[in-house]
Amino acid sequence: MQEQKIIQVKDKTFAVSIPESELKQQIKRVADQISSDFAGQEPVFLAVLNGSFIFAADLLREIDLHCEISFVKLASYQGTSTTGTIREVIGLNFDITGRPVIIIEDIVDTGLTMAHMLDTLKGHNPASIDICTLLLKPTKLQVKLDVRYCCKQIPDDFVVGYGLDYDGFGRNTKDIYTIV
Ligand code: 5GP
What we know:
This protein is α/β, with parallel strands linked by helices.
């Protein structure tokens, strides 16, 4: 029997749950689907920092389309009492008006981050917006969210690696690990 890979990130112990080979396979499957669905179009990929940087790099290299990518963050700050919370996508350095947009996210948990992102991006009048996530915890979703592309659904356990962190650490692994 193969020895199970275990890592320590700060005070927590994690064991491999999705090996690199499976990630590669699932990412290729999703990339092929996107390339086919958007054939003849020039989509804009918006990779949500920080967690999606490795996924975005691997996904984009499997995409067979003329496309652009921008790395964005969703910033929220308190406005005046009449405007409430203001949300802004920072890092969006070109015009997405009339363009097909594909958001690249590391993991959808409650779905609130993606719901806010969709709301904010709609204000820029893109032709379409789709979500592409590496991981999805379906049992945790709190909002109705149409996740068109998902590499893998996972149970409701905390994961790290392949770009995802625990308190800033643990992003630099090839496999994904689940807390034990
Ligand atoms: P949501 O708004 O969908 O609840 O949360 C999405 C964000 O929460 C992700 O982009 C990620 O930063 C963080 N997150 C949710 N679940 C996990 C997890 O299991 N591991 C890590 N590292 N981050 C997570």
